[in-house]
Design a protein that fits this description.
Layout lengths: L1 H52 L8 H13 L3 E6 L3 E7 L2 E11 L3 E2 L15 E2 L4 H16 L6 E9 L7 H7 L11 E10 L3 E3 L2 E4 L2 E10 L3 H13 L20 E10 L2 E13 L2 H18 L4 E12 L2 E3 L1 H15 L4 E3 L11 H5 L4 E9 L19 H20 L2
Parallel strand pairs: 3-6, 3-7, 7-16, 8-15
Antiparallel strand pairs: 1-2, 2-6, 4-5, 8-16, 9-14, 10-12, 10-13, 11-12
């Protein structure tokens, strides 16, 4: 009996010593990653400002892709360009055996002619980074820089995906079609997206994070007032909302159940007698999508006056729901706490109604998780609400995001050896 107790005691001490050594090793690696990012801070900020000054819309990201490729080559990664358009892939092979994990960052900007409220404002008329993709790109470069600094001690491989054409929802599918999830094939994929949390914070959500997208197209013809009819259809589609736009009184918080819709109308230039209504619908559940679909059909039928004819094309989920893999998210929380602190981690429980993300296409193929990266700074009076005219992202978020995602990727590789 005494012998058995001694054996158990020795085993327990050995296990505790092993756990303590692993914890110390993790802390040592995180210290190396953080030191590397601090050294790279000013360079990363300058890269972000350069990309911000020279924004490129979906499908035109040639200059940005060149910056990314050159930086990754400087880290001695295996770099492939021209993937799915202007996509760039960098493969970092660690010195220790392990799995393959992937990290994705998007690169494109949007058309926007509002005033750019930063000193390094856009030099391309009518185009701006107001969704934070310049931040996302730079965070991805920071993660690559940090993990490359511990390459010899890295267990496994990290595949960095720098994606074009997210805003027009074509880039992810194009890169997948070009084989971005093959050779080597990642077991999981991670990403961040700018959010109006305070800088220094990272939000994590399991399950539905962003709703998908139904596309609604209504073609209107006839002898009646086609233009007025088309505008009535717009009102019908917009009227199925159960939440308002960001910042409105009924859209301040993200409800667990919602429908969000938006539509616009214009005449067909090739046929002035025909008007086309384009709209989309987002919802929190299949039941909500079905209710919205039926409401639109009934409303358009009721709004059609004598002399007008319409053709309704309602396409379900042209963009899939973005669903974060629960196991990935739960498994990453300890690493996130180590990286940003207990106060820096925000556990989010409701999906955001207003936006969509083609990151969802990757998640249909492999487990994936996207985190919300805080970019607002209330002390400075700046708010990082994506796609708002006054969007400003605090640059401290670059280091925060790179530190957090480096910790998540390293932790995933360590736990899945």
């Amino acid at each position: 009996m005494i012998r058995r107790v001694l054996v158990l005691l020795v085993a327990s001490v050995g296990s505790a010593a092993s756990a303590g050594a692993a914890t110390l090793q993790t802390e040592t690696r995180m210290g190396q990653l953080e030191a590397t990012l601090e050294t790279a801070r000013e360079t990363l900020i300058e890269i972000r400002r350069d990309i911000h000054r020279h924004p490129e819309v979906s499908g035109e990201e040639e200059r940005t892709a060149g910056i990314v490729a050159e930086y990754l080559q400087g880290l001695d990664l295996e770099v492939t360009t021209g993937v799915g358009g202007h996509g760039v892939v960098g493969v970092l092979r660690g010195g220790r055996p392990g799995l393959v994990v992937s990290y994705r960052a998007d690169m494109d900007a949007v058309y926007d002619d509002s005033h750019d409220p930063v000193s390094f404002r856009s030099e391309t008329a009518g185009v701006r980074h107001i969704c934070g993709h310049d931040i996302h790109t730079t965070v991805g470069l920071g993660v690559a820089r940090a993990l490359a600094s511990i390459r010899d001690d890295l267990p496994g491989t990290v595949k960095f995906i720098f994606q074009p054409a997210e805003e027009n929802l074509q880039g992810a599918a194009a890169m997948i079609d070009d084989g971005v999830l093959e050779n080597p094939a990642p077991r999981a994929i991670f990403a961040v997206h700018s959010a109006p949390f305070e800088v220094g914070q990272v939000g994590a959500i399991e399950g539905l994070a962003l709703p998908g997208l139904d596309r609604v197209t209504v073609t209107v013809t006839g002898d009646g007032d086609v233009a007025t009819t088309a505008r009535a259809y717009v009102s019908v589609i917009n009227g199925v909302r159960t939440v308002g736009p960001p910042g409105s009184s009924d859209g301040v918080e993200s409800p667990e159940e919602f429908i969000w819709s938006r539509a616009s109308a214009g005449h067909d230039r090739s046929n002035p007698g025909r008007w086309v209504v384009q709209g989309f619908v987002k919802a929190s559940s299949e039941e909500a999508y079905a209710a919205a679909k039926q409401s639109i059909r009934d409303g358009i039928e009721a709004a059609t006056p004598p002399g007008a004819e319409y053709h309704l094309d309602h396409r379900d989920r042209v963009l899939p729901d973005m669903i974060n893999d629960p196991e990935l998210v739960r498994g990453s929380l300890m690493a996130l706490r180590r990286a940003v602190g207990e106060d820096g981690l925000v556990v989010v429980t409701s999906a955001v109604p207003y936006f969509g993300e083609d990151f969802a296409f990757y998640q249909q193929r492999i487990p994936g998780a996207m985190y919300w990266l805080g970019v607002s700074n209330s002390e400075k009076g700046t708010v990082g609400m994506p796609h708002s005219p006054g969007f400003v992202a605090d640059e401290e978020s670059i280091v925060t995001g790179a530190r957090a995602m480096s910790a998540v990727l390293l932790d995933y590789l360590e736990r899945h050896r």
